[in-house]
Amino acid sequence: MKAKTIVIIIDALGHELSAHHHFHPGGLKNRVLLKTVLGFSQAALTTILTGLSPDEHGLWMMYSFSPGRKRFGWLRLIPGSVSSERRWFRSFVRWNLEKIQGVKAYYSIYAIPREILIYLDLPATRNLFAPGGVEGVRTIFDELERLGIPWLSWDYRTPEEAAFAEMEEAVKEDRASFYMLYTAGLDADIHRFGWDDGHVASHLSWYAGRIERIVQAAGSKISHETRVIVMGDHGMCNVTEHIDIIAQVDSLGLRIPDDFLPFYDSTMARFKIFSHDAGSVLKNLLENHHSGRILTSHEMNRLGVHFPDGRFGDLIFLTHPGTIILPSFMDKEPVAAMHGYHPDTPAMYSAMFTNINVPTKEISISDVAGFFLPGFKPTRGGDAA
Question: pTM for this structure?
Fold first, then answer.
C-alpha cells in the first residue's frame, strides 16, 4: 500500500466548538490550535491552500468594489422595475457569470441590491480545488501536478455523504497518493442552530465515525508514511445582538454612487469613498460605535488584509464578536451563529487533528500547506509560473 496524505477540511470546525462537543476522531492523537484570518471561508480556504495571507493571494472577500471593471455592469440593460430577488433574474445572472464569463468559483448574489451589484467584481473566478485555482499564485494542487503526484479531491459540489463514501472507497483501493475533502455541512448547521443544538452534536459525531472509517481504510495501523489531517478553516460565535447599520448610514444623506459605495457583510461594513465629506461623516458615525470599530491601516497590515488600492473598501467597520449586521447584503433573516470576527477572538480559532508530530500546539492556517505537502513553498505573483 503506497504512502498517502489524507486531508479533510470541515468548514467551521472551531477549536472551542470541537472541545465543547468532545470531538476528536480516533487514530489522530495530536490536536493543534489554528489561528484563522480575518474574513470568511474564501479568504481562509485560499490561505490554507496557498500558504499566503489574503493581501498576498488577493482573494480576501467574495466581492470587491470595481467602478472600472464592472463585471455586473450589463445589468443596467434590464429595466429597473425588475427586482433582483426574482428567481429568473438570479438564474440569468448565474447563466451570464458561468456560461459567458466563465466563473467557476463559488459565489452567491445573496441579497445584494442591483444598484450596488453593478459596481462590484468577483475576485475569485476559478475552481479553488483544482490546479490554476488562484491567478498568479501556486496552490497545493498546482504543486501536486508539478511533482506528478496522483491526487483526488471532493468539495462543496459533491453532497457530503457521497464525498465521504467516495473518499473511503478511493483510499481503500489506493487510487491516489493525495486526497482532499472539503465540506461545508457543519457550517450550515451552526449558522442555523448555534453551538449547542443537538443537530450540531450529531453532525460532529457522524464526522468522527466517517473519519475513523477512512483512517481504517488507509491501513489497519496508520504508519508514519500515511499522513492524516482533519481541520477547520475558522470557528463560530453564537449571535447575541443585531444592529441596523444600513439604516444608520442611510440617515446620513450620502449619495450612491457619487459620494460612496457600501457593502454590508454579516460582520463588516465596507465603504468605497469618493468624497471627503462622505469619509468624514461615516467615520463620525462608526468610530465610536458601541457594536464595533473601524479597523486601522496598521491593524489591517498586521492581519494581512491591507489593500492600499481600496479594492475591498477604504473604510472597514468590524462588529464585536456575537454581533451581526441585520439586514445585510448577506441575509435579511437572523442566524444563530456567525464567523468573520476578529481572528484574535478565541471562538474564531479552528482546530486540527492529525497523526503528524507538530512541534507546537498553535499555528496559523497559513502554515498547514507545509504539512499537507512537505517542502511546499508559498509563491507570490509571477513566481507561480
Answer: 0.95
The DSSP output letter for 160 is H
Residue 102: how many other CB atoms lie within 10 Å: 9
Distance CA 92, CA 384 (A): 35
Q: Is 193 exposed, middle or buried (0-12, 13-18, 19+ CB in 10 A)?
A: middle
Q: Give dist(CA 234, CA 307) in Å, integer.
A: 22
Per-residue pLDDT of 160-187, as tens digits, reads 999 999 999 999 999 999 999 999 999 9
Nearest to 294 by CA among 305, 302, 282, 286: 286
CB-neighbour burial class of residue 39 (10 A; exposed 0-12, middle 13-18, buried 19+)? buried
Question: Hey, what domains does the chain have and what are their CATH numbers?
Answer: 4-52+137-238+343-372 (3.40.720.10), 57-126+240-334 (3.30.1360.180)
Give me 266's grid cell.
454579516
Within the chain, strands assigned E span 4-10, 30-35, 64-65, 120-121, 151-154, 178-183, 226-231, 237-238, 241-243, 260-264, 268-273, 292-294, 315-319, 323-325, 337-338, 350-354, 362-364
CA-to-CA distance for 217 and 225, rounded, in angstroms?
14
pLDDT in tens, 242-296: 999 999 999 999 999 999 999 999 999 999 999 999 999 999 999 989 999 999 9
Contact criterion met (CB below 8 Å) for 150 and 176: yes
3-state helix, strand, coil split of the chain in percent (to 5) is: 35, 20, 50
User: Do 267 and 241 contact (CB within 8 A), yes or no?
Assistant: no
**Cis ω on the peptide bond leading into residue 150 (within 30° of 0)?**
no
Instruction: Report the DSSP beta bridge partners of residue 293.
Output: 318
Residue 155's identity, in one-letter code, is: D
Q: How far is CA 100 from the centre of its chain?
A: 25
Geometric angle at alpha carbon 151, from 174 and 6, rounded to 5°: 70
For residue 90, give the H/E element and its range: helix 87-95
Does residue 337 contact residue 194 with C-beta atoms inside 8 Å? yes
- Among 5, 17, 1, CA closest to 233: 17
